[in-house]
Design brief:
Distance between the termini: 52 Å
Shape: globular
Strand content: 15-25%
Radius of gyration: 18 Å
CATH architecture: 3-Layer(aba) Sandwich
Strand order of the largest sheet: 8-7-6-1-5-4-2-3-9-10
Number of domains: 1
Largest sheet: 10 strands, mixed
Length: 243
């Protein structure tokens, strides 16, 4: 059997660890390992936040929540809406949001999270103007010990930049709640045409409150603040309500 980093040009690579099902049969058929790979970086490149990139990961996050595995969202551009996640049957008690407003803090927090390996999946938004190739190489090395998928959300211009990530996807929204997924890079042959996927719809409706009330525990997400100078401060996170 060939090593993970070596594959025949006419066929998909065969990683030693099977991928986690993405929830989309057409996408799994084109991914080495037949799913989201663990222990490597996966880049999701989109024009802007809210283009369907999170909904693409709903089936994975739903499954990880059911398995009581931690979903880490590191430096999301917008505060995740807990009732919206719950509407997709995602267990928000398994979601941890890490705030890292400064670029250096963010890169440090991503690397430290990767080295810990104690997560079901990591979703990280990198600073576009401060992320250099050497940063990505460090993150790829740190990701090798991770037991779950690692997703880096990057801006549209990143598609033209070199990257050590073995899997890179370009995501573009389409009418009718669909998403175009073009595989820019994978361990396997070039895929000529993009895939068009139907994005998941909420399984339950989001209930709106008639007037403000005390926040319920089910409407909260656990949050931490990344501070490289003091790991103890990071560990002492707090819980905030989403309204």
């Amino acid at each position: 059997m060939l090593p993970d980093a070596v594959w025949r040009a006419h066929e998909l690579g065969h990683p030693t660890r099977p991928g986690l099902p993405s929830g989309y049969a057409a996408l799994d058929a084109e991914l080495p390992g037949a799913g989201w790979p663990a222990g490597v970086l996966t880049e999701l490149i989109a024009r802007e936040p809210g283009s369907g990139e999170l909904r693409l990961l709903v089936p994975l996050m739903r499954r990880l929540g059911q398995e009581r595995r931690l979903i880490v969202m590191l430096a999301p551009p917008h505060l995740p809406y807990a009732p919206g996640l719950q509407g997709h049957a995602i267990d928000t008690s398994q979601v941890l949001v890490v705030h890292a407003p400064h670029a250096a803090d963010r890169l440090w927090a991503v690397e430290q999270t990767l080295k810990s390996g104690s997560f079901g999946c990591l979703l990280a938004w990198l600073p576009a103007e401060r992320t250099r190739p050497e940063h990505l190489r460090r993150l790829q090395l740190a990701a090798q010990g991770a037991q779950g998928p690692v997703f880096l959300f990057r801006p549209l211009a990143a598609q033209f930049e070199a990257s050590p990530a073995p899997l890179r996807l370009l995501l573009l929204p389409r009418p009718g709640q669909q998403l175009s997924v073009q595989i820019l890079k994978r361990r396997g042959p070039v895929l000529g045409a993009p895939l068009t996927l139907d994005l998941p719809q909420p399984v339950t409706a989001i209930r709106l409150r008639a007037r403000p009330t005390a926040p319920a525990s089910s409407d909260t997400l656990h949050t931490l603040h990344a501070r490289p100078a003091g790991a103890s401060e990071v560990a002492g996170g707090r819980t905030v309500a989403l309204s």
